[in-house]
Design goal:
Blueprint lengths: L7 H12 L2 H8 L5 H16 L9 H23 L9 H5 L8 H6 L7 H10 L24 H4 L10 H4 L13 H16 L2 H20 L5 H17 L9 H12 L1 H9 L3 H11 L4 H33 L4
Length: about 325
């Protein structure tokens, strides 16, 4: 029941509604593009690579997208688990979840007694120790979930949930607390970055306009605070740039050969004018990869091992999940 945080971005959008023409406001409010559209755009990109529509090694663009998304999701989980932020939609919890009316044990001990009293906050800073009497709260209802009983401390099921925890988990569609940064915007930004790298030009500018439209609508409809969308945009851009060295857009060996060809171009033309075929053959041998194939075997083998390890790890997690939850 904590009030939403003050959000300057939300105030700005409401102020613009009063200043801008009605038609523009309706366009800003319109649900032009959603998360599934960005995912469909990514699928088109991944398979366009397969048919040589863009310059990339095989399905490298799609693999880079998925790897960058995995890193971004991991960082996002670490971020929102670290600090609990109140939802921008204060009615969310009461509408979606059945939870006890009293706070979680940690909130009882470390948050509630000091949340609204400035002197209590000052005292806990000085003492660096929880000192307040938390009172007598009812103990949480505990079910027997076997090896998954540790989830009870986080999900806090009520007696009406019954003996199965699966009914609670299948309602998963995101929590009610604000999850900084926005996962929707991360998907949108990575799709825009992939599109820009693949095609560029006017079409990429249009995709980025759709990303901006989606960002303001996330804030306007109170799915996220403004900071969630802003952080997602620059984190997505930085992550995409950082993963570029793993999946380069163009063949590095090809660019090296072209650079060498540029260096010997004048000598090659002179040898051709002199009809010195031995010299031409000698110069062309300098351009040929030769021993580069053996040099590239190491990195290529490393990428194959990395890909196999990722696939094995993912399948192991899936098998463990099904095994540990098969008892309901």
């Amino acid at each position: 029941d904590t009030d939403p945080l003050p959000d300057t971005g939300q105030w700005l959008l409401l102020a613009l509604n009063e200043k801008l023409p009605g038609t523009i406001v309706q366009i800003l409010r319109a649900r032009i593009i959603g998360l599934h559209h960005f995912l469909m755009l990514f699928m088109m990109l991944a398979f366009s690579v397969l048919f040589d529509s863009v310059e990339a090694p095989g399905l490298g663009l799609g693999a880079r997208y998925m790897f960058t998304m995995a890193v971004g999701r991991l960082l996002r989980a670490i971020t929102f688990v670290s600090t609990i932020l109140p939802s921008a939609r204060p009615w969310c919890v009461s509408a979606r979840f059945r939870v006890p009316a009293y706070p979680h044990y940690w909130a009882q001990k470390y948050y509630v007694p000091y949340a609204s009293d400035a002197s209590a906050i000052r005292q806990i800073i000085n003492q660096d120790m929880a000192y307040a009497d938390v009172g007598n709260y009812p103990s949480d209802y505990r079910l027997d979930w076997g090896s998954m009983s540790f989830l009870i401390d986080f999900l806090r099921p009520t007696a009406s949930e019954g003996s199965s925890w699966f009914s609670l988990l299948k309602k998963a569609g995101g929590g009610c607390n604000d999850l900084i940064y926005s996962g929707h915007m991360l998907v949108a930004v990575l799709t825009a970055m992939a599109w820009t790298e693949a095609y560029g030009g006017f079409s990429s500018a249009l995709v980025w306009l759709l990303v901006m439209h989606s960002a303001q609508r996330e804030v306007r409809e109170r799915h996220h605070y403004s900071v969630d969308c802003i952080v997602a945009i620059y984190v997505g851009i930085l992550l995409w740039k950082m993963t570029g060295f793993i999946w380069p857009l163009k063949d590095a060996s090809k660019s090296k050969r072209l650079n060498k060809l540029d260096k010997i171009q004048s000598r090659l033309l002179q040898a051709a004018k002199d009809s010195d075929m031995d010299k031409v053959t000698e110069l062309l041998k300098e351009v040929e990869p030769g021993g580069q194939e053996t040099q590239n075997k190491g990195p290529i083998k490393g990428l194959w091992l990395f890909a196999c390890a990722i696939i094995f790890f993912a399948l192991t997690i899936v098998v463990l999940a099904f095994t540990l939850t098969s008892d309901g």
